[in-house]
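hey m, so remember when u said the tokens were messed up on ur end? i reran from scratch. heres the input so u can diff it against urs
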Amino acid sequence: MTSTVQVVATELYRARITPQGSLPRFKLGSTTVHATVVQIVTYIGYSQIGFVCVFVLTNLTKNCLGRLRPHFIDVCKPVNITCRGNEYYENYVCSGNPVLVSEARKSFFSGHSAFSMYASTFAAVYLLARIPRHTFGRAALPVIQTTVIAIGLLISFSRINDNKHHWSDVIVGILVGMFIAVYTVSYIFSILKIFQFLR
């Protein structure tokens, strides 16, 4: 949702500042389609492909590797096990809700971290590529990018505070989200051959 709003706002702004004669026109049957509409659909489509990649990779990893969440014992409610002494239990029976127990086994890697960092990194790199540098002054674009990245990091780190993930799950989620975002944006602009920074 955030990517969609950002892409629409950015492309409408670019259409407003670009001289009308320099924008290409596209034909769809007998209908002429404005270049801005084509660009919006293209960028939103590619951003959604990136989201699907994050979704697939996150769910494959969670289901194949898994890891117990920090609050697993509370959700599992193991039968006949006391938390006294230094005992290690290999065999236990959970009395908790089976759906919650299954979800509590999927800590690695953090999906919230991966998705939030994908969205924020995509936004930051997309803005760098699509907004002319002189538009808001020299400091405004880096401030916007830093704010967007900070929001993604805040969402990611909240998962540690909520006891939903271990710190390492969050760090890996952040790295995965950032990598897929940078790869997606690089792919978009290399395919479309428009990765030019406007001076």
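this time it looks ok to me. The chain has two domains: 43-67+108-192, 68-105. if urs says something different then somethings off w ur setup not the seq
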